[in-house]
Fold this sequence. Notes:
Strand order of the largest sheet: 1-2-6-3
Strand content: 5-15%
Low-confidence stretches: 1-23
Distance between the termini: 46 Å
Mean pLDDT: 86
Number of helices: 18
Largest sheet: 4 strands, mixed
Bound molecules: protoporphyrin IX containing FE, 2-acetamido-2-deoxy-beta-D-glucopyranose
Structural class: alpha+beta
Shape: globular
Number of strands: 10
Amino acid sequence: MLFTDILALGILCVITLVVALGRTRRRVYPLPLPPGPRPLPILGNALQLDTKRPWLTYTAWGKTYGKIIHSRILGIDLIIINSETIARELLDKRSANYSTRPVIRTNELAGLAFNTVLLPYGETLRQHRKIFHQVLKAEVSVSYHEMYSRHANELVINLLGATSDWQKHTQAYTASLIMAVTYGHLTDGYEGSFLTRAHELLDIAKHIVSPERAAMFTAFPFLEKLPFWCFGGALSLMGRSRELAQQLLNEPFDEVKGQIANGTASHSLVADFLSQAHDDADEDTMKAVALMGYIAGIETTTSTLQIFLLAMVLYPDIQARARAEIDQVVRHDKMPCLDDRASLPYLDAILREVLRWHPVVPLGVAHATSNDDVYGEHFIPKGAIVIVNQWALSRDEDMFPDASRFDPSRHLTVDGKLKDSFANHVAFGHGRRICPGRWFAENSLWTAASATLAVLRIDHAKDSNGDRIEVKPEFCTGTAIHPEPFHCSFESVNTAREGHLRAMMNSK
Ligand code: HEM
Ligand SMILES: *[C@@H]1O[C@H](CO)[C@@H](O)[C@H](O)[C@H]1NC(C)=O
Ligand SMILES: *[C@@H]1O[C@H](CO)[C@@H](O)[C@H](O)[C@H]1NC(C)=O
């Protein structure tokens, strides 16, 4: 992304760039920065990056320079952390210094000021996180268990009838579930129009959040004064982005308000919120929180669900063991539900392993330092962008021997208990910025995984000659990654549960 941006800037911008560089003078630091590759003049290490998969470059640098690395891109200091211990030490234990975000000036211009993910550390963020906590904390999230189950049952039935286009059902599961939980039942047909526009907005937003892009705007604030067409591509869509954001923030929220007024509202985060007393500022925050659930939750959760299915195809023994665990605990004509969760540690271990095996946000979301700090012998300057390279953490052979193998038993003790809780997983980030949607993600993934395994065998698909179609774990890249579409088949292995699901869906 970075590289195409630089190209898009064109000659005009390059001239301005050189002028600006003349103005940035380096501080002299009291201690050396962490080690790292030698930066080139002006661009720093920008051209050394694998732009599609920068986490691979950062992991490779780790082998040469160690677990904490310094790199410079367009004059901005980047601290890359390749170790879970260091990530916890700095981002968790010293969270007061490590909880802000790189300044992304385009955010506001694009009408995305509501975007919690990019808020600097401060009062607005505190208000957002307070409401997130109210509506998405562990206990509240569990109270939606019937909604998770209803949508997971639908997912199972849809997968059963699916062919090569099964991916769309995983996406529909996440999307309709998030909508149902946040807004409840909206006017028929509205959901489709909301989702189409939300995706358009998400696509635009994604082009603005990469730390490398943030670096560019932090380094050269004057860039935002240039006309948008100068950047080409996504940035020229800012007007559209502003318009979409306003529609999506207000429409569904106002609809729920109307439903409350005429007594037709169903149980939902927004309805619950509105049934208590609030001032207008809180209401704006709730609008943002509701929309953020969709923006931040849809791709991450859908991709994780697809990676789960990928692992089940590739590791049939693990799949069989998980199903055996379910059949031992849950009656054969009943679906598993969240109450059974504590009795199904192997299933939880599978979900933890899914997050480790292919972390869906390989570089997490960049933090930034609000003060100078010292770690060991190294200086970490104020304003540095701090990236936890989850990919490197997941491939740490000391912690995860044979790391590229999918092996849930890593997360179990010898007597079969879970070692650590799911919501503590590094895949959800760190410190004061840890993902506030993690319980929702956890419950929705658990419900979908348990329902799928309880009814379906997930296997290789066969081609027209009856030969099995091989599956390779390959991933599309971006801020969030997801598996390349792959073929698989779904076959019912429990007719009692299947019948039960069909009956429930017909009686709806
Ligand atoms: C498997 C699913 C998910 C994964 C792997 C995931 C991962 C992450 C990560 C890595 C961060 C950045 C944390 C940091 O800066 O250290 C984050 C932030 C965030 N996530 Fe999630 N997330 C998931 C699902 C969700 C869902 C379902 C929601 C909402 C319902 C959500 C809402 C958010 C928000 C609002 C932030 C920004 C928090 C802040 O900047 O303070 N996420 N998530
Ligand atoms: C209640 O209000 C909502 C939102 O304004 C509207 O869509 C719905 O049709 C109304 N229902 C009834 C029964 O008046
Ligand atoms: C930031 O880190 C420095 C050095 O470790 C420490 O002295 C300072 O108190 C920290 N600041 C905050 C706000 O925690």
